[in-house]
Write a structure and sequence with these properties.
Number of domains of chain B: 3
Structural class of chain B: alpha/beta
Structural class of chain A: mainly alpha
Distance between the termini of chain B: 77 Å
Radius of gyration of chain B: 25 Å
Shape of chain B: elongated
Strand content of chain A: under 5%
Order of helices and strands of chain A: HHHH
Largest sheet of chain B: 6 strands, parallel
Strand content of chain B: 5-15%
Helix content of chain B: 55-70%
Number of helices of chain A: 4
Helix content of chain A: over 70%
Number of helices of chain B: 18
Largest interface: A-B, 87 and 122 residues
Low-confidence stretches of chain B: 270-279
Distance between the termini of chain A: 61 Å
Mean pLDDT of chain B: 90
Oligomer: heterodimer
Mean pLDDT of chain A: 92
Number of strands of chain A: 0
Strand order of the largest sheet of chain B: 3-2-1-4-5-6
């Protein structure tokens, strides 16, 4: 891996963090709980790395570890998106609620 | 060709993840945000499955099935249990990252020249962050579910022990970076990271959970970033950074809402101050019956309801909404004042009240409601404690001095629903309860609100 590669990854990290700050700052305080469950699901992007480890089958140990990692990430993806949507459905527009 | 396709899928996924968070800026667009997130994840997973390194799909498919079987029921938990579900999923996230780091190390150890200084440093960061997030979040989930004691457990020299453990782990990691073939150090790092996660959460009490959950959220994101550096995958770096910055912002908001610093939350448990506060002299308070409460509410034109963790514990949100409906129907303006740290995670009260069909324009933030508090006829405090304690404004000796509060004491009258007169979780006496304008209604939040509701319905049958 070249030095340039490392710098390019660091740039991606720093710029993404800034985007994250800006975007999350705009998230309504009403929705901080759904925000957390949504970012939970998003950080389960670790599934990408886990899939390759589990699928390339280079050693039994690595395959087992990778498979457990895929299962753990998949749990977060499924439950994270489902519960976020479930919560967001509950936020009723003004005037549409009972009161 | 296929490599370009995969990279394109990753790039689109990164863009969609950013939109996913952006659309959470307002409840009307928020569900679109989830759809964007799902699409992004589908692209990312789909693209990854095309990788030519993958020789077998059986294990992956089996893991998908297991993850779905576990994940679906986890999304059905009652909303009061959302904090522990969130903590649990941080644990899963940390575990996945830590395991991939371990697998990568064992694979590269067997090949010459793979464990470069940069890779080894990234793997160390990945493994330490991943495993400490794993056990730390499990501990947090255990405390929230109350299978573990929720009171802070403190002992002498605790911070010293914790920091020493972390120092040894980091020192081992540095040594391993210098000489990656010293594989004996790797399990040492893993065990120390696991241990550090446990010890870090032991001294933290329930009232600090919103900050801790946010912080663990941030760690889980940073762990994914470290994994991205190890695997040279920019999508992982982007998505992890989004999660990391989100958790960080939430932690800062929570800390500000308690007027405390990160170090103070992590290393300065509330536990020590309990005995000092308990020595307060005997003070008098006024108790009210359900009928009294009903009469006071009946004549009010502006009622502000301050919900706290007590409302969540007794699942009183539906009864509270019923009461709010009755009051609104007779022309009373009813609003809910939401303190940022009310409950056990950021935004907890909003979700609970939304579940009970309270429209979101009735949920008002602390800073927006406080200027209206002097005009408020009745402030109804339901299971909230520290967030309405006026001592935070003037009593320099109080552990919560300086914390921004909802000005319940400035309302013309205050009704406080509480189980007993015992001081709350932090063990701090609340002078609001002894104020002239405050009436105490004792009992479980659900029972009391239900009682007031039936007093309204039955025309004073209690």
């Amino acid at each position: 891996m070249s030095q340039l590669e490392i710098w390019s990854m660091l740039s991606v990290f720093v710029l993404s963090t800034f985007i994250g700050f800006e975007v999350v700052r705009g998230v309504s305080r009403l929705l901080h709980t759904p925000l957390m469950s949504l970012t939970n699901a998003i950080s389960a992007i670790a599934v990408v790395g886990s899939i390759i480890i589990a699928g390339e089958q280079k050693s039994t140990l690595a395959t087992v570890l990778g498979t457990v990692a895929v299962a753990a990430s998949m749990t977060n993806i499924v439950s994270g998106f489902l519960i976020t949507d479930r919560m967001l459905k509950m936020f009723k527009k003004p005037g549409s609620g009972a009161s | 060709m296929i490599d370009n396709l995969i990279q394109l899928a990753y790039l689109l996924a990164a863009v969609l993840f950013i939109f996913s968070l952006k659309w959470l800026s307002h409840p009307t667009t928020a569900r679109r945000g989830v759809a964007a997130g799902v699409a992004a994840m589908a692209l990312a997973v789909g693209g990854t499955l095309l990788h030519h390194e993958i020789v077998s799909y059986e294990w992956i498919a089996a893991a998908f099935v297991v993850g779905t079987i576990v994940g679906v029921p986890l999304s059905w938990v009652p909303l009061t249990a959302v904090p522990q579900r969130t903590a649990l999923s941080h644990a899963f996230g940390g575990l996945a990252v830590g395991l991939v780091g371990t697998a990568k190390y064992t694979l590269w150890l067997g090949e010459d020249g793979q464990l470069t200084t940069f890779r080894m440093a990234a793997i160390s960061a990945e493994v330490i962050l991943g495993f400490l997030t794993f056990t730390g979040s499990l501990m947090a989930a255990g405390k929230l579910q109350e299978v573990l004691p929720t009171r802070p457990i403190v002992y002498k020299g605790q911070n010293l022990v914790n920091l020493a453990l972390l120092a040894i782990a980091v020192f081992s990691a540095v040594y391993l970076v210098y000489d990656p073939t010293r594989w004996q150090l790797f399990p040492v790092i893993v065990v120390l990271a696991l241990l550090f996660g446990i010890l870090l959460i032991i001294p933290i009490g329930g009232a600090d959970m919103p900050t801790v959950i946010s912080l663990l959220n941030s760690y889980a994101g940073l762990a994914a970033v470290a994994m991205g550096f190890v695997l040279e995958n920019r999508l992982l770096i982007t998505a992890g950074a989004l999660d990391g910055s989100s958790g960080f912002i939430l932690s800062v908001i929570m800390c500000r809402a308690m007027n405390r610093s990160f170090t103070n939350v992590l290393f300065g448990a509330f536990g020590q101050v309990q005995t000092a506060a308990a020595a307060a002299e005997q003070k008098t308070y006024k108790a009210a019956t359900l009928e009294d409460a009903k009469q006071i509410l009946e004549t009010a034109s502006l009622v502000v309801i301050v919900p706290g963790y007590g409302m969540a514990v007794s699942q009183a949100q539906h009864r509270v909404r019923e009461l709010a409906d009755i009051l609104s129907r007779q022309g009373t303006d009813v609003r809910f004042a939401i303190h940022p740290v009310a409950g056990r995670m950021p935004g907890h009260m909003n979700v609970l009240l939304a579940e009970a069909d309270v429209p979101y324009d009735k949920l008002v933030e602390m800073d927006d409601i406080n200027p209206d508090m002097p005009q408020c006829d009745v402030c109804l405090v339901i299971g909230a404690n520290d967030v309405v304690n006026p001592a935070a404004r003037h009593d320099k000796s109080s552990p919560i001095y300086g914390m921004p509060i909802i000005d319940a004491d400035k309302a013309k009258a205050c009704l406080a629903i509480k189980r007993t007169m015992n001081p709350g979780f932090a063990g701090i006496d609340n002078e609001l309860y002894y104020a002239d304008r405050t009436l105490m209604v004792f009992g479980d939040a659900k029972g009391v609100i239900g009682g007031i509701v039936s007093a309204f319905k039955g025309g004073g049958g209690h």
